[in-house]
């Protein structure tokens, strides 16, 4: 029965089957088959090696950093483009030596900038936090507000495309990790938004980071609100996790946000309670804002004592970080 089933399965070739059944089958060499298999295997091996080598080379190239810290010293970068953001604020794009290089910054960290005025033997050095992504190849962006008698901001605003500026870093700030805190609050004034935006980018570009964020951002006028488009996009994309509150010293008539300065009453409403578990408050702005909100820091390595509104509201020193 089993033989009949096998026979029926070969019905389309019955005549050929009779012929082969009456003739002794010729022995066929397996050498060509082995050779073919060997060639295919070799080709696959070469392909895989090439792909792995290429991937490794690309990975190494992607990891090449402009700023490595330590004893590296100053790196001069050429100004590629300038964009006016407001009457006194510009975005400056500086290009890297190679278009495939990345900055080398992490979150949160900053860079030092330096130039030597023609009227002084002492160079001017100021820290800035780039607003471009740390993994952005080819360039970095600084957003700088021009302050009267501010030597570095005035120098930057006087620069032309093609001129160069010295940079050094990175300068490590707050060591951020995904989900390090359940809820963070960012209290910023003016260009103090730049390190806050660095944190925001890192949190919301990482699908594994579920941190909730509240931003309180003070400015003089509505036109002074830096990165407003980017902030609104984040708020619209993550409405359950990111909320921004804007305060203006000189609001227009149709303004619906806060007026005047960032007050104790406002912070009491929008901040998480001091007793909440695993929260952090970050502060960055002009000296007057530090003094009123959190107290000033002694140095980059010394946060100083917690004072001001945050202390009055019951927060402790470990819950606050001053950029």
TrEMBL record:
CDD domains the record matches: cyt_b5_reduct_like
Gene3D superfamilies, A to Z: Nucleotide-binding domain of ferredoxin-NADP reductase (FNR) module, Translation factors
The keyword Transmembrane helix appears for this protein: yes
Secretion signal span: none
EC number: 1.6.2.2
Subcellular location, record wording: Mitochondrion outer membrane
Principal location: mitochondrion
Residues the record lists as binding FAD: 126-128, 143, 145, 152-153, 194
GO cellular component: a single term: mitochondrial outer membrane
Catalysis: reaction(s): 2 Fe(III)-[cytochrome b5] + NADH = 2 Fe(II)-[cytochrome b5] + NAD(+) + H(+)
Record-linked InterPro entries: CBR-like, Cbr1-like_FAD-bd_dom, FAD-bd_FR_type, Flavoprot_Pyr_Nucl_cyt_Rdtase, FNR_nucleotide-bd, OxRdtase_FAD/NAD-bd, Riboflavin_synthase-like_b-brl
Keyword terms: FAD, Flavoprotein, Membrane, Mitochondrion, Mitochondrion outer membrane, NAD, Oxidoreductase, Transmembrane, Transmembrane helix
Domain FAD-binding FR-type: 72-177
Entry GO MF terms: cytochrome-b5 reductase activity, acting on NADH
Function: May mediate the reduction of outer membrane cytochrome b5.
Protein name: NADH-cytochrome b5 reductase
């Amino acid at each position: 029965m089993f033989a009949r089933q096998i026979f029926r399965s070969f019905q389309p070739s019955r005549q050929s089957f009779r012929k082969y059944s009456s003739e002794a089958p010729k022995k066929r060499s397996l050498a060509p088959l082995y050779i073919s298999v060997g060639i295919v295997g070799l080709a696959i091996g070469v392909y895989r090696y090439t792909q792995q080598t290429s991937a490794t080379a690309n990975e190494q190239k992607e990891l090449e950093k402009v700023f490595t810290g330590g004893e590296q010293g100053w790196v001069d970068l050429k100004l590629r483009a300038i964009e006016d953001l407001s009457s006194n604020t510009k975005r400056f794009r500086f290009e890297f030596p190679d278009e495939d290089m990345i900055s080398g910054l992490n979150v949160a960290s900053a860079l030092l900038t330096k130039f030597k005025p023609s009227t002084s033997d002492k160079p001017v050095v100021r820290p800035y936090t780039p607003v471009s992504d740390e993994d952005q190849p080819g360039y970095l962006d600084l957003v700088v507000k021009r302050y009267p008698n501010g030597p570095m901001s005035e120098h930057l605003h006087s620069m032309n495309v093609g001129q160069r500026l010295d940079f050094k870093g990175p300068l490590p700030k707050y060591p951020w990790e995904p989900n390090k805190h359940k809820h963070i609050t960012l209290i910023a004034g003016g260009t103090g938004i730049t390190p806050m935006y660095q944190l925001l980018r890192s949190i919301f570009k990482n699908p594994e980071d579920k941190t909730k964020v509240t931003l309180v951002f003070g400015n003089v006028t509505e036109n002074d609100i830096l990165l407003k488009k980017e902030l609104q996009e984040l708020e619209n994309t993550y409405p359950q996790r990111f909320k921004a509150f804007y305060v203006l010293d000189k609001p227009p008539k149709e303004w619906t946000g806060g007026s005047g300065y960032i007050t104790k009453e406002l912070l009491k409403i929008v901040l998480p309670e001091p007793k909440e578990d695993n929260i952090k408050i970050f502060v960055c702005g002009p000296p007057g804002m530090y003094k009123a909100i959190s107290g000033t820091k002694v140095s980059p390595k010394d946060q100083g004592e917690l004072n001001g509104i945050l202390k009055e509201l019951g927060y402790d020193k470990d819950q606050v970080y001053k950029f």
